[in-house]
Amino acid sequence: MIRKAVIPAAGLGTRLLPATKSQPKEMLPVGRKPVIQYVVEELVAAGIKDIIIITGLKKRSIEDHFDEDPILQNMPPQLCPTANNMNVQLFYIRQSTPLGLGHAVSLAKDFTGDEDFVVALGDSIIHSAKPHELLTRMMKAHREKGAVATIALEHVPEEDVSKYGIASLEDKGEKISRLVDIVEKPPREQSPSNYAVAARYIFSPLIYDALSRISVGHGGEYQLTDAIRLLIHDGLPVYGVMLNEGERRLDIGGFDTYFEAFFLLALTDEELGERMVKWVKKWLQEHESRLKHAP
Fold it and tell me: Which of 40, 46, 166, 267 gives a 20 to 30 Å CA spacing to 86?
């Protein structure tokens, strides 16, 4: 049973300025909740009991969000989430210098110890009827395959491969497949596939040895993808688990994907979704002539 998780949340969020000038991108609201709350809820639903969040400069509001608040202590738990009422232990460590995702994960070594653990990116939501089911499938595959790393994957358009880590698979088209290679943000013409890493990972402690052996990579940072590639080249079993139909990774990394995520969750909101759908239909009707001439 995997019981620990790492949430990297130390990124600067420069692509979302000025919205992120004084607040973390992980705290941007998407629908009714900030991004990172969706991530923590997903982990808890998957059975995770202990989470360490890797924070950095101007990230204190993440800790405040999950802390007890005496002023709001009589509010319903769904309106005032805390680590206590979510039944999870939260720990924090700072990445003082932004050296990349690989470096951020390496800071969790003492926390995870000799246990396998989940890594869930703090700026990405898994949207589905039951978001935790992806992690549940990953945990099952990780255990049954004897994997040292298990990675969530999704198909992306060819024009988007340069935005993500891209995997090459042994059995293309299968829901679960062994990786034969992985590369960080390749140019479109050099991409081995369009299977993109989808912000969720499971690792054995062997990832820390691989992280200690990598050099500065893409973007002048220590890339987690490069450490995974070392595991593959060492002949160790690394597997990918595809997102199912109805599962979607919402990447809150830039305004385009942030707007899409907010729009989707607004339209599917249990209380206000139907009203929002009607509003959108009305707006489209009122602007139909102008939209016909849009590029």
Answer: 267
Cβ atoms < 10 Å from Cβ of 122:
29
Total length of the chain: 295
| Burial tier of 220 (Cβ tally within 10 Å: 0-12, 13-18, 19+) | exposed
Residue whose tokens read 């950095």: 56
Helices (H), the chain: 35-45, 60-66, 101-106, 109-112, 133-145, 206-213, 224-233, 255-267, 273-286, 288-292
Which of 24, 5, 1, 18 shows the shortest CA–CA distance to 252? 24
Pairing state of beta strands 176-184 and 238-242? antiparallel
Quick check: helix, strand or coil at residue 122?
A: coil
Domains of the chain and CATH, by start = 4-251 (3.90.550.10), 254-295 (no CATH)
Measured in whole angstroms, how far is the alpha carbon of residue 35 from the centre of its chain?
10
Specify whether the CB–CB gap between 128 and 186 falls below 8 A. no
Which residue, 133, 260, 241, 107, is CA-closest to 179?
A: 241
The DSSP bridge pattern shows strands 195-203 and 248-251 to be: unpaired
Token pair 């805390």 in the structure block, residue: 82
* Alpha carbon distance 58, 113 (integer Å): 28
Q: Is the pLDDT of residue 291 over 90?
A: no
Tell me: the pLDDT tens digits for 168-226? Answer: 999 887 899 999 999 999 988 888 899 999 999 999 999 999 999 999 988 889 999 99
